[in-house]
Specification:
alpha+beta; 8 strands; single chain
């Protein structure tokens, strides 16, 4: 990496807006056809990114800030700058390095979506799966799909890299199979309900996957990591309403009795009328669905 490119990148990490205003007006380059172009902050550039039909100027100052926060972008660029070292890219000067770094940093930042990014994004009613409705819904929300796709790629690339390493470098897929089985289990748990459901189905199909994998995935049958009890209480209050929630005299929210892919069960007590019309306290099982389960599953199925 040449000194000018590194200086631009470091300046960008420290203060993106100031860096671009300082460096972009002086950056020149040429395309593959030899046509010289200028990138100038103060005048609209004519250089377009064909896939989006946006100029670099528009991408840097308008498009990217609209889809990812400046703090996340700075953090991503800091990671790039830290790992850049003295690597020579051989793809030209900063006129290519800076936009490429911005794009990569943006995609990396987008792979860490906020926890509530899918809240309310349910393309169809519960129990009424409709792929056509989902296609129409998500085609109008490309950023939602992009965030999840990038998140899935980030979560899974380590496991996939290890599998390829075992197969093509070590040339022995069986050597680390027990370790890879544990990694697969952790990956599925991190991805969420859709992957957990698939993992549960595969755990009993040792004819389709290696026995070590099936054995590891069998934990998903009765040992799925629970979501927080705070979230469970919020869901109960929201779904039951104040009156019915008040009927729950006791409920142990500290620890669920069981946790599954879609929900988890708590032990509780409630006042109910018996056959004689008198109220009595009885023990009940309270099942709570995972927050945003439908929104998450619908999005994963679409992808």
């Amino acid at each position: 990496m040449n000194r000018k490119a590194l200086a631009v990148l470091i300046a960008t990490v420290a203060s993106p807006a100031q860096a671009f205003q300082t460096h972009l007006p002086s950056i020149r380059g040429n395309d593959n056809a030899g046509t010289t172009f200028n990138i100038n902050r103060n005048s609209a550039t004519t250089r377009s990114i064909s896939s989006l039909n946006l100029s670099i100027d528009e991408v840097v100052f308008d498009f990217i800030p609209s889809i990812v926060s400046l703090d996340k972008l700075q953090a991503s660029l800091a990671t790039i700058a830290t790992s850049a070292g003295d690597v020579t890219l051989g793809i030209g000067g900063p006129e290519l390095l800076v936009p490429a770094s911005i794009v990569f940093g943006t995609l990396y930042a987008l792979s860490f979506p906020p926890e509530d990014y899918i809240v309310g994004n349910e393309p169809y009613l519960r129990g009424q799966y409709d792929p056509n409705l989902a296609r129409s819904y998500y085609s109008k929300r490309p950023l939602l799909v992009l965030r999840r796709a990038l998140q899935l790629f980030r979560l899974s690339n380590g496991f996939l890299t290890n599998i390829l390493f075992d197969k093509y470098i070590l040339r022995d897929s069986e050597k680390n199979i027990d370790k890879r089985a544990v990694e697969l289990l952790e990956l599925i748990q991190n991805i969420g309900p859709t992957a957990i459901k698939v993992g549960q189905a595969l755990s009993v199909r040792s004819d389709l996957i290696p026995a070590a994998y099936a054995g590891a995935l069998s934990e998903l049958q009765d040992n799925v990591p629970p979501f927080s009890s705070v979230q469970a209480q919020e869901v109960l209050k929201s779904e039951l309403g104040a009156k019915r929630y008040g009927m729950l005299k006791k409920i142990d929210l500290d620890k669920p009795v069981a946790s599954a892919s879609i929900g988890q069960v708590y032990r509780g007590f409630a006042d109910v009328e018996n056959a004689e019309g008198k109220k009595e306290e009885v023990e009940i099982a309270v099942k709570v669905q995972r927050p945003n389960a439908l929104a998450g599953i619908a999005l994963d199925l679409f992808i």
